[in-house]
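Extended Data, panel c. Modelled sequence:
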Amino acid sequence: MRKSSDKKPQNKTLKLLKQTKLKLAVAEERLTNLDQYIKQLESQVLTDTLTGLLNRRGLEIFYEQEQQRICRKHSPGALFVLIDFDRFKSINDVYGHPAGDACLRLFSQTMHNSVRILDGKARVGGDEFVLVLTQIETAASAQKLEKIRQTMNNLSLDWQGRKITFGASVGASVVTADSSYEDVYKMADEALYAHKELRHSALSALN
């Protein structure tokens, strides 16, 4: 009889343990789902929905993180590359906005594929894009920049039986430990418009 009575508390304890484990498993699942939901919201806040690239806010955070690495001597430097999608408005006017969106996606994918996974890629305006090339020596930046210019200047898309050709103007500025985002952006913008004027002059000479 004593053995039978001893088993009852043991069975009750085992039942409570199983119930507790079940509750813990449910709680862990809820926490995992909540964490995934938070990450999804964060991604939506920092990402451009059309292209999947960083948006302006996401770029600013990426820039700050890279500059901190430069300050701590964990990176030799970075290059801020501003890229302007040429003829975007005229593509929308002639072919329609769906064609413009398709060109933007191709433009974004090409830009993404032209750099490393550790580099920052962003769309900061309707036809304005930015690359932050990280872990790069100043001496190597000119060659890398020219390669990006060549890659982004020879794009085409077949759209409903018609071929849409487009390119980009590119400007850049070196990021140092003391460079503010605003100053780097301004210098890259000035270099971009100098490149745009040069390209337009070259095209006018050909015509």
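The chain is about 60% helix and 15% strand. This feature is highlighted in the accompanying rendering.
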